[in-house]
Design goal:
This protein has about 425 residues and is an all-alpha fold. It has one domain. The chain has helices at about 5-20, 35-55, 60-65, 70-95, 100-120, 125-130, 135-160, 165-170, 175-190, 195-200, 200-210, 220-245, 265-270, 280-290, 320-345, 355-375, 385-410. The two termini are about 15 Å apart. About 55% of the residues are buried.
Length: about 425
Amino acid sequence: MNPNPAIGVLFHWLGGLASGSFYVPYRGVKRWAWETFWLTGGFFSWIIAPWFFGLLMTKDLLAVLRETPGPVLFWTFFFGLLWGVGGLTFGLTMRYLGLSLGMAVVLGLCAAFGTLIPPIFRGEFMTQVVGTPSGRIILLGIFVCLLGIAAAGVAGIYKERSMSPEQQRITIKEFDLKKGVGVAMLSGVMSACFAYGLAAGDPIKTLTIKHGTPDLWQGLPVLVVVLIGGFTTNFVWCLVLNLRNKTGYQYFNSTSRELNDTDHARDETIIETALDAPSREVVEHITSARTDLRARTSVAVADVPAPGNSASKKADGARVPMLANYLLCALAGTTWYFQFFFYTMGETQMGRYKFSSWTLHMASIIIFSSLWGIGLKEWRGAGVHAGRMLALALALLVGSTVIVGYGNYLGLAR
């Protein structure tokens, strides 16, 4: 199969659409705590979907994994584990830097480290990237992507300035630049570890192709291993939250209970949790949940009104739509998985510069999550300056995907 960067960019856009959209079904989950619906959906994201599509689309998945050398499995799993840490520390960045600045720093670091470290580690950066015209064009595309991320951060800052003083205090509750930058660096680097995990799994791709798997699906067995690592981190943390917040019953009980004052309600939990590949509307819904702490109910984040809406939902003794919640979590979790399903497909089309897939992935996530934010009217009233900066950010991010794709196209001719 000959690589086709144009098709590769399309696959990465589809992955970005999945990543920017996966949280929408969670908005319909009723009377479940964040840790409950996140872990439920996570079973589909990190376990069920990877194994289902791996078994369906590849040849001899179990045999391939058995034949994979132990060190390869370990490092692929380990980088997935670290990626999970990056996602969980993302929420702390929001606490210390605020939504917009925190996202700009973390996503910028994640895009830069996830894209550039693999070729640097392999010793190809100076010869294959800096030393070639096509490689330099890809570097330009990466730079434009970082400018787009920065513009998105500025747009968010303008938006935050349009909030009321009370909403601003909620969004940036404990601003601390020094601590926030430190946590942001940790989160950004750890979040980039997903790209490292995929690179560490290259021998698995070679093995699955030898077993007869088409080139297009060669990355699916790697996802099985990387996502087990990510599942491990999130599983442990969600169980900790289930125990601390007394929400473990929600998996089995269709009657919700009112939390006690000592259970910390949603405040501490939501601040300290974060989503991998975070999208703007996701984090805003999380922070908005803290505006209604007096309700002290174990509700889903999507149930909590957005800033400015004082309505609350009483959950004490209310019936929980268990089947609907599980189905919505299954839909959200499977949609989440599709971001990397399409990512691995796009990677096969990028030729010698497949490391640039990470930039395409990050740009596409921000593009589609921002569009969801616009569609959900979360930028209403943000002001002219915010709107202009958001438009600039989207233009830069779209442009970066075109530039990176063109650089990969030129690379095929060498």
